[in-house]
Structures are given as C-alpha cells and as structure tokens.
Design goal:
Length: about 220
C-alpha cells in the first residue's frame, strides 16, 4: 500500500492547499497529504462512522488537525473546502458514481483517482464531462496492478479518447509505461480463460474474443 499511497501523494499539484480524501478508510492518504508543506487543510471522509473509526484513531494518534467527516462521496463536503479530491480504494463504477453525483462541486477542481479494475467507462465519463488526464501511473503491489490518475478540468475537449486510450490510458500508452505490457498480457490471459470454457454454441462471442485477442497482440507489438 505504501507504494500506491506515495504515487497518489506525488500527484498532488504543488499549488493545492485543501484536500478531501473520499472513502478514506484508515485515513493514511489524508494523513500523508497533511504533512506536505503546501497543504493547509485536509478532510477525511467516509460513508459511516464505523468506516471512519480507523481514520479517527490514526489522526488522533498522530495528533493532527484533520477533520474526519461522515459523507456519502462528496455530498457533505462544500466545494469551498477542497481544491483536490482524492478517491482511491474503490471500484471504477463507484468512483464514477461519486463524481457524477457531485459534478457541480467539481467545477475547476482536480481529482486523483486510484483503482485496480476496468477504467474504460470511467475514462469515457471523465472525458465527456470536461476532465483531461494530466498524469497517469501504474503501481504494482501484492501482485495487483493499480492505476493512479490525476484529472484536471479543461476549458474544452479537443477530441474524444480513442478506444485503446479508454482501455489502457492516454498517458500510459504515450509514455509506454513498463507495467502496461503486463496489463495487456493479463487481458490476453483473461480472453484465453473465457475461450477455454465457452461452449461451442457461442461461436459469435468466440469470434469477438479472438478478434479482441488479436487486437491486444497488435497493440503490444506496436508499443514494443
């Protein structure tokens, strides 16, 4: 977890002063963010008091001036209370819903997200709603690869992301991140696993999966 947290902290823009750590769990991200010289205020939020208890304990032990607040996503957070929202440790579907529910609050805000599942729909949603990728990293911990993205608001979106960018990330592709090849290999393994158990009657789905596998192999060669 330390490597992933450090990656998130390193993405906090130097000009940021107020952070909200959404779905904070143990509050470790908020606590580390608080120790940055340019951060003046941190809110650690989670959906109920049981979820927030560990964060409260850690904040108290460190004797830090961090508010721990019950909030479903950003619903109980005023837009004046943060300039960067960090949403980590949730699935991409939950992250998308949190952003969707609070879009008016996120105008001109920066968002750092981290998850380990399929980001296709999340990337498409963020692109459609005026956010562009400023930074994008992959982190491997306990044999799981996590994506960490810093989104910033854009005055206008020049073009929609292409399919491969939605699946694998525009910055990760352009920078040819080392772990990206492992991500593609994992996708190929998933396709092979489905093909092995798919009954012959689903031949159309088999064709689509074989086409997907061929595409992934072409993409890997292109990046090599």
């Amino acid at each position: 977890m330390k490597k992933r947290i450090n990656t998130i902290i390193n993405m906090i823009p130097p000009g940021a002063k107020k952070i909200v750590d959404v779905a904070c769990d143990h509050g470790l991200i908020g606590i580390q963010a608080y120790n940055l010289d340019h951060i003046k205020a941190v809110i650690c939020s989670d959906i109920n008091d049981n979820a927030l208890a560990a964060a409260k304990g850690n904040v108290k032990r460190e004797n830090l001036d961090i508010e721990c607040r019950i909030s479903d996503g950003l619903k109980e957070i005023d837009k004046k209370e943060f300039d960067v929202a960090i949403i980590a440790g949730l699935g991409s579907k939950a992250i998308t819903q949190i952003v969707k529910d609070s879009l008016p609050k996120l105008t001109n805000k920066k968002i750092i997200i981290s998850t380990n599942d399929n980001l296709y729909k999340l990337r498409k949603f963020m692109n459609k709603n005026g956010f562009v990728v400023e930074q994008e990293k992959l982190v491997k911990e306990n044999n799981v690869i996590y994506t960490v993205i810093l989104y910033i608001p854009a005055d206008f979106i020049e073009e929609e992301l292409r399919e491969e960018q939605l699946y694998f990330g525009p910055k990760l592709l352009s920078e040819k991140h080392d772990l990206l090849f492992e991500v593609i290999d994992n996708e190929i393994e998933k396709v092979d696993g489905i093909l092995k158990i798919l009954p012959p009657k689903y031949f159309i789905k088999q064709l689509r999966l074989r086409s997907r596998k061929a595409y992934l192999k072409r993409l890997k060669r292109k990046l090599s």
